[in-house]
Structure formats: structure tokens, C-alpha cells
Write a structure and sequence with these properties.
α1 (about 5-20) runs antiparallel to α4. The protein is of the alpha+beta class. Strands 1, 2, 3, 4, 5, 6, 7, 8, 9, 10 and 11 form an eleven-stranded antiparallel sheet that branches. A hairpin with a 5-residue loop joins β9 and β10. The protein has helices at about 5-20, 40-45, 95, 205-225; strands at about 25-40, 60-70, 80-85, 95-100, 105-110, 115-125, 125-140, 140-150, 150-155, 165-170, 180-185. About 20% of the residues lie in helices and about 40% in strands. The radius of gyration is 25 Å and the shape is globular. The model is unreliable at about 5-20 and about 190-205 (pLDDT under 50). It contains four helices and eleven strands, in the order αβαββαββββββββα.
Length: about 230
Amino acid sequence: MNKLSRLTSIFGLALVAASSAHALPIYTTADFSGGVTNVTKFGSDLGLQRTNTCSGCPEGFIGGHLLFDTALTPGAGSGVVTVPLTSVAGASNTLIFDIILGGNPLEFHFGDANTQGPAIQFKNGVFNGLDFVQDFSLNGKSFEFSMWGKNWDIKTLNSNGVYSQLAASGHLNIGDTGLTNQQVFNQVSEPIPGPSADLPASVPEPATLTLVGLGLLGFAATRRRRQ
């Protein structure tokens, strides 16, 4: 392999590395909302009521907010994809995920015990709901709050110890307008170890690397002609 070919290979690897370095997280906060569709006696005991029968009363309310990495949003045609919510420096658990239901109210956060998830769900790159399961107890009864996509339900244990008796169910508002009040979250910068701890990390821009690479290729070609 001649010098020109070697320089071309090195330049290609540098561009790949720069592209990877620029896939940095873009954390975004957003609100979501939904409604209560069905309520049984168990659901009434939890302080829930059908949204369309209580004219904006808190018993028919469901909503919350979350913090997710916009850079992980899948593209169109990707089908159903779930992206787990994770801890973020400078963000509290209630900022990462918080959901409130009903007038009592029922409230769940990121990091709660007996939880699976939460994860944000996309369908072909568009918000499609949440993936979340939380077991909880209230007034001596055990419940399971489950969300999959836009649908959610709360069930209580039957006599066989299985979560099958419906307390309430409902939906989330999904699609392009499902996430509202979206804002970029500026996370707390972590110090860099070593003498330059007070300086921000510097990543070369792809355009800069392109110019440097073209310069190296031109220099190599000129040297070759002179030889």
C-alpha cells in the first residue's frame, strides 16, 4: 500500500470516528396526557372516574412528564421500538419519569421499587406511548398498573393470586402531538479528570476533518509528483 492509499484509509477512519463522536445524547423533557375509559368499583376506590363523565375533574385525569434521549428516536419505517429511560446527570427521578392518575392521586416515578421500565415507545419514529409495569398496594389491596403503547390498565388480584380483576383502563394521547411542551434539558457537565479538568472536551467538527484530510491528500500527491 503506497503513502497516498494509507493516508486515504486513515482519513476515512477519522471521519467514521467523528460521526460516532457526534451521536451525543440530546436530552429532551416533554409532557404527555391521556384519559380514563373504564372504571369498576375497584377503580372508584382508587379515586378514578371516566374522563368523559366528569368534565375535567381530577378523578378523570392522567398525565405526566418524562426525560428522554432524542438522539435515540428511530426513523420512519422502523416499526415499534422501545427506548428505556435512564438516569441522567443533574436530573431527579421525578423529572426523568412521573405519572399521575386520578383525584387521590396515584403517582409513580422513575426508580420506584417493583417496577419494570419505564421506556418510551415509538412507532415508525413517532411517539406511540410507554412501556411500564408497577405493582403497588393501597388500602390493603394489591394492584398492578400496566402500560403498553397507548393503552394502560390497573388490575387487582383475584382469589388465585393473579392480576385479572379490572379496576380501570384508559389511553394515552399519541402521535406527532402526543408529546407536548418539549424542551432541551441541559444536563450538569461532569468534570474531566487530569490537568485540563476545567476545560470542556473538544471534538473536531467533520468539516474540519474534511479540510485536514484534503490537505494531507494534496500534500501527498504533490510529493509524489516531485519524486
